[in-house]
Input
Amino acid sequence: MHLDGAALRHNLSVARGSAPGSKVWAVIKADGYGHGMEWTAQSLADTADGFAVSCLEEAEVLREAGIGGPLLVLQGPRRESDWARCEALGLQPVLHDEAQLPALDAFRGRLPGLWIKLDTGMHRLGFAPLKAQVLFEQLRRHPAAVGGLHWMTHLACADRPEHPQNRAQLDAFSHAACELPGLCSYANSAAVISGLVAGGAPCDWIRPGIMLYGPSPIEAEEGPERGLQPVMTVTAPLIAVKTVPPGEHVGYGATWTARQATRAGVVAMGYADGYPRHAPSGTPVRVRGQVCPLIGRVSMDMLEVDLTGVPEARVGDPVTLWGRDLPVERVARAAGTIGYELLTRVAGRLQRVGG
Ligand SMILES: *Cc1c(COP(=O)(O)O)cnc(C)c1O
Output
């Protein structure tokens, strides 16, 4: 796997350009969407205003790697002792559920920021918007709030910018939070890209994730259409080339049949590497610049491709599974999933080479 640090920084500048007044939490949870959390953080250390991770364990890894600066923990504390860990590491946790309140009441420490999440319609994490004022009164004098009490929400349908729920959620958020002191944050990549930030409620901090890595989060779009560049390129070598006689089948279950004598290549990439097992015959790969279709079922460590379009292909040639010249969204669409899933599932055994 090749990682392109310049593309990562370029994509962050695209996010900034779409939300010029906002600071940027670069979202690097899930091992930096599969790119390696430390590599991603180090590559963006000079350009992001802060990093957002999912849980305390991820935040600890970053601090141990020497990553300073603001760090937002999206799922916030789960156990009582987590609040003290947040203080010790200088984290900004998210408060999103009643169940977190008793431990917060007992905690006397100071935090650089405390974000209150409002559930404005996604019905995943967050307090009812009506509770914002009450929580504000309850927590404003709490030592944990010395660094500020801030407000966030998350949009369910930002990947479809015209969806009416976007407006409804942003209205509910502005109504509940924008009059209260503190900063506001609601925009994931889709909201940043689609202009919901530019035209919507104030967003002091945007939270782009997927767009930093190249894919467009907007339904049926590909990153390059938005000026985004793929950061991760996954390649694997051709390890065998053979001719499949007409009427013969390829792979487990004999699901693909050669209509005529077909040159087939075996690629050292399988579902144990994170390639989707359910990718059907026809899913694109690239060999010597040409798009070739996957044939037969994906195995654990191998998959096969039809090399008819590339007669010059040889054992040892690198095959691109996704990345530069083959957006991961295109592969994901063929496999019935989204780019996020393919990126976050790449296996640890793939060697990462990058700059
Ligand atoms: C993951 C996440 C993001 C980033 O979302 P993308 O779609 O990857 O931009 C932003 N905010 C929250 C709360 C998240 O969980």
Notes: The longest strand covers residues 232-244.
